[in-house]
Amino acid sequence: MSKATVTIRHVAERAKVSTATVSRVLNNNPCVRQRTRQTVLEAIDSLGYKLNVVARSLKTSRTNTIGVLAPDLSGDFFMFIAESMNRELARRGYSLVVGTSQSSEEEEAKQVRHLAERLVDGIVLIPVGGSNAYLPQISDFNIPIVFVDRILKGYRADKVLVDNEEGACKAVSALIGEGHHRIGYLGGNPEVTTAEERYKGYCRAMKEAGLEIEQKYVRFGNPTLPFGYRAMEDIIKDPYSPNTWFIVNIFTHLGATNYLISEGEERTRQITFASFDEMPYSPLLRYCRYAVQQPIAEMGKAAANLIIDRIEGIGPPEPQTLRFKTRLIQHKLVR
Amino acid sequence: MSKATVTIRHVAERAKVSTATVSRVLNNNPCVRQRTRQTVLEAIDSLGYKLNVVARSLKTSRTNTIGVLAPDLSGDFFMFIAESMNRELARRGYSLVVGTSQSSEEEEAKQVRHLAERLVDGIVLIPVGGSNAYLPQISDFNIPIVFVDRILKGYRADKVLVDNEEGACKAVSALIGEGHHRIGYLGGNPEVTTAEERYKGYCRAMKEAGLEIEQKYVRFGNPTLPFGYRAMEDIIKDPYSPNTWFIVNIFTHLGATNYLISEGEERTRQITFASFDEMPYSPLLRYCRYAVQQPIAEMGKAAANLIIDRIEGIGPPEPQTLRFKTRLIQHKLVR
DNA sequence: CTGTTAGCGCATTCAT
DNA sequence: ATGAATGCGCTAACAG
Fold it and tell me: Do B169 and B282 belong to one domain?
């Protein structure tokens, strides 16, 4: 029943050639006569031979596996990234192993080490924060890394980013163009590069329009659903707070909206948001006038290709930074 | 700079023991004198030795990796499963490699083969459909499989499921209890076991209440967002259609809701849904009176433990079926 | 073009 | 309790 593993050696015997030749056929090495190749191929499938990737890896010290490490997998953004990466990786013959840092830098460092020890050929990293305390460690592994969405400052590596500043700026400008003048900022801690850039964009739009930024209504935090919820709770309690807000990402946005929905107060009718991220459920976000859409699928695909090219030594030796443009989406406000 | 890989051999030399002893220490083999173990351990970290998992795998033919294969990663449900699985796997020393079948049975078969050839120790499978045409193939691999959410009929394996019938039944009953009498069904093709069971639950609730099921308003399809959208478009065009619907899952629900929102018609005020799945954005689903919440995190964790136990030969030899209870969530309808 | 040979790094008999 | 020797299945020189 259980087939005793058939190896390259059996194939060789069956085809009356050496194991080296079989190996060549397996690797599409052109230095094999057509006829020989044919014989080997026949032996292979008459025997039902399957290549043992582990043995190959031991020789080549390459696993054709790449690791992706994200703060968590359950966020829509990261999972779309993983999905599109996986598509492209599969197309190029790689597998994807996943890890999560649970938004902890310590865990992140541990996971990077763990992945590297699993001998993944490369790591796509969405770092938790801007701190680079453990950078020396990861350089040690001597393994290619590609950053997506956020970066670790001071680490030379390929990067896949979006134009956060411009995206935020356009969204805020659009609000201003519709007559909103007091616009608050609900965002992530600016140590994270992404949040920092979006904040800059917000500031730029305000400045260009000659509007004042009320520091009291610039709120930083860990941009999660609970943060958005509680922040909005606070804001609504303050009768002088602005009715219009720019929100740094979808989680915070979701939290803020959830709060407003659970409170039936009159004032919620006045609220207007612009926010980063567009998701399948974005039409349901009642206060969302503008959404900054990121080309997530392309980003994942790009990350996959960057890391593979780096591994296979294709492409420029210099680290590349790909900055994708965002798209501003206007929503009808149905209340 | 680049450390020339330090192997078990170097450690052995440094500790003045044989490689066998080092190996024993690495594997916590008790047959090592305490003093010797100490020496080896010191050698290990003075040299910065790292175990090469690939070499180990080649010997043991185990990779400590398990594969998960889902229709796609971009759905919240599957991603939550993967997330919680990954947590538990990591805790028990395993890694997770992901694959997607893109909702195609053919691709699914291919991926199972691919994963098996990568020598994953086990596969957690969320199959696309009920067809089991390629079952003989996968039995060949002689590798443990655990089904999650849905099953392939006729394949003996561990299963992690929820009580779909009861969940659906309770939700529909709750609607009935609030005075809804004409309730349609918007669901997935009943070849998928999950959909089939939910449909049964719907039928049971209707029957128990003595209500008639209008076949015209039982709609099957591929339960995706576009399906929900178009189905609702159709339904709304029919003035005799019911205002109350049970929906098979979150994607369909999202599609249906998106349609209703984009149409500002008067009638949408009358619409009420009950649906499977509760997500972070569920409060935004305007027509959702009841949601059937699945214990996703526990399911992922259970799947992880089942597959590992199977791999490590722990637990009962008989395939197990874990049926988790659902929870009915009531939402306020804020319109 | 093809065969011979020698490991990759580790776990594991079988001795001792 | 420890060591010597063997081989997991494959690839990569090097010869021929």
Answer: yes
The CB-side HSE value for B155 (13 A sphere, CA atoms) comes to: 26
* Position A41 confidence tier, pLDDT thresholds 50, 70, 90: very high
**Facing residue for B257 by CB, picked from A65, A140, A284:** A284
Sign of CA dihedral B106, B112, B115, B117: negative
Same domain for A140 and A259: no
Q: Is strand D in 7 Å reach of the CB of B21?
A: yes
Query: Is B107 within a domain?
Result: yes
Range of the domain at B257: 164-294
Cα–Cα distance, A99 to A114 (Å, whole number): 9
Q: Nearest nucleotide to B7 by CA–C1' distance?
A: C9
Contact (Cβ atoms closer than 8 angstroms) between residue A64 and residue A96: no
| Tens-digit pLDDT profile for residues A51-101 | 999 999 999 999 999 999 999 888 889 999 999 999 999 999 999 999 999
- CATH number at A319 reads 3.40.50.2300
DSSP reduced 3-state for B135: helix
Give the C-alpha separation, A91 to A106, whole Å.
Answer: 33
My answer on whether B158 and B199 are in the same domain is no
Nearest to B252 by CA among B215, B216, B223: B223
pTM of the predicted model over 0.85:
yes
- Total domains present in chain B: 3
Chain A window 32-71: which residues touch B at a Cβ cutoff of 8 Å? 50-55, 57-58, 61, 63, 65
A1-5 long-range contacts, Cβ below 8 Å, gap at least 24?
A2/B142, A3/A48, A3/B140, A5/A52
Residue A260 and residue A150 in one domain: no
Kindly write down the DSSP assignment for every residue of B147-183, as one continuous string.
EESS--TT---EEEEE-HHHHHHHHHHHHHHTT---E
Same structural domain for residues A136 and A232? Answer: no
- Determine, for residues B54 and A63 on separate chains, whether the beta-carbon distance falls below 8 Å: yes
- Enumerate residue ranges in chain B where pLDDT < 70: 1-3, 130, 135-136
Same domain as A300, residue A288: no
